[in-house]
Amino acid sequence: AAPPLDGSIPVNDLGTLQSRVVQDVQASEDVTWYSIDFPEAGLMVVAAIANGSSDPWQVDYDELGRQIGMNDDYGDGLDSLVMARLQPGKYIIGVRQYDGGQGFIRLLAERYVRAQ
Predict the structure, then answer these.
(1) Radius of gyration (C-alpha) of the chain in whole angstroms
(2) Three-state SS letters, 33-57
(3) From CA 63, how far away is CA 106, in angstroms rounded?
(4) What is the phi/psi pair of residue 108, to 5°?
């Protein structure tokens, strides 16, 4: 379930997603939470990129707590990837190590807008 945004669970604010945000995460089996503001309708792509023996898992929610995507392994590797068409608002991203332990994960969020 999505964490409440009342401060009872730490949620790291990544700010407004203008085009691209990169965040390094020292991940464990516990979920680390991030929030990001999506300023206008478009496509958001969130990748959790494995480094070394990491196996990232991610889940993404809208600000009402509705799940918009979840992924463990995308393609042939251990990276996770979620793509979703979104309306403006706040979104919550959770990442963790899939099989426990510790690992370094690079979190990448990108915003794509429709051509005018």
Answers:
(1) 13
(2) EEEEEECCCEEEEEEEEECCCCCEE
(3) 23
(4) -125, 125
- The rounded distance, in Å, linking the Cα atoms of 68 and 60 is 6
Phi-psi region of 100 (alpha: psi -120 to 50; beta: other; left: phi over 0): left
d(C-alpha 54, C-alpha 65), whole Å: 27
State the Cα–Cα distance between residues 75 and 1, nearest whole angstrom.
25
| Token pair of 8 as six digits | 């009872």
37 near 15, Cβ under 8 Å? Answer: yes
- Express each pLDDT in 62-89 by its tens digit: 999 999 999 999 988 899 999 999 999 9
Which pTM does this prediction carry?
0.93
Note whether 54 and 103 are within 8 A (CB): yes
Both tokens assigned to 69: 């995507």
Those residues with Cβ within 8 angstroms of residue 58's Cβ, 6 or more apart along the chain or in another chain:
46, 48, 69, 70, 71, 80, 82, 93, 94, 95, 96, 107
What burial letters (b/e) apply to 59-74, b meaning 16+ CB within 10 Å? bbbbeeeeebbebeeb
